[in-house]
Write a structure and sequence with these properties.
The protein has about 280 residues and is an all-alpha fold. The protein starts with a helix and ends in a 10-residue tail after the last helix. The longest helix is centred in the N-terminal third of the chain and has 35 residues, at about 1-35. The chain has helices spanning about 1-35, 40-45, 60-65, 70-100, 105-115, 120-135, 140-165, 170-175, 180-195, 195-210, 215-220, 230, 245-270.
Length: about 280
């Protein structure tokens, strides 16, 4: 009886901790939504409220009137989708080779993947800028996409290597017995089983590129080519005073694509990797 009570109290404590964590994560987003619909009078109030007393859409209208949000969102979408697609296409066969050929070279490559994530943006921006300048890719979306691919590729490799190692070798050996070559095995057997991992990796690369600010700020100078995170900074005044209402409205709109994409593909991420893998 005592053990049962201890188990119930421990489970209740876990639920309380989880609830507190969810509230901690949701608070900034909920406050952002509330701010986006507040009129200027409520934004300057000394007694802020969770729910706007007089909700308005003026902040959204002002945000679209002041800045080219749709154009910036289009630039961000092109850069993020392209970077995610290219990173996944490159990382998938590389991850397969690293996972199936365990040797010193593979171990060194894995170590490089982990270490490369420790480099700060400021440390690499100058050499990257010089390389892109020599290639005449400064102030171009193509140059920014290539930079995003290079930056997200190490972590994409690290993620996919784990997924590849989770695929039983017996399935590939069975395909080899049936006469399939390495490429055919990768495309027809391994790749379908890696679908959750590929989707998760693509989502990571997309969100990383969609939210990235520093590289886009340095590389893109023409307003027509700037991405959404850079355009959001234009709501800050010369003295650092934020136009809070329009900024909150624009930031809220900027979070929607990531949430929608995650909601659509979350079943693929959580789905079993080996569903239907057993041959009948």
């Amino acid at each position: 009886m005592t053990t049962l009570r201890t188990s119930r109290s421990g489970r209740a404590g876990q639920y309380v901790a989880l609830l507190c964590y969810l509230v901690f994560l949701a608070f900034p987003f909920l406050w952002l939504i509330s701010t986006a619909f507040k009129p200027p009078r409520e934004l300057g109030s000394l007694h802020p409220t969770w729910i706007p007393n007089d909700p308005t859409l003026d902040n959204f209208r002002q945000a679209f009137d002041e800045q080219p949000l749709l154009q910036a969102a289009g630039n961000s979408l092109i850069a993020a989708l392209s970077a995610a697609l290219i990173a996944v296409v490159i990382a998938t066969p590389m991850a397969y080779a690293m996972a199936r050929n365990r040797n010193r070279l593979s171990a060194a490559a894995t170590g490089w993947v982990v270490v490369s994530q420790a480099f700060p943006f400021v440390l690499v921006i100058i050499p990257l800028f010089l390389i892109l300048k020599n290639l005449h890719l400064i102030n171009t979306l193509f140059g920014l996409i290539m930079l995003y691919v290079v930056w997200s590729l190490p972590f994409a490799l690290w993620m996919l290597v784990g997924y590849v190692r989770a695929v039983p070798r017996e399935l590939e050996e069975a395909a080899s017995v049936d006469g399939a070559g390495k490429l055919r095995t990768l495309v027809s057997v391994t790749a379908p089983l890696l679908a959750p991992g590929i989707v998760a990796t693509a989502l990571f690369a997309f969100i990383t590129a969609w939210n990235e600010f520093f590289f886009a700020l340095v590389l893109l100078k023409t307003p027509e080519k700037q991405t959404l995170p850079v355009v959001l900074t234009h709501f800050l005044g010369a003295e650092g005073v934020a136009d809070l209402g329009p900024l909150a409205a624009a930031a809220f709109l900027a979070t929607i694509p990531s949430l929608v994409i995650f909601a659509i593909i979350q079943k693929r991420i959580t789905g079993g990797m080996l569903t239907g893998a057993v041959k009948s």
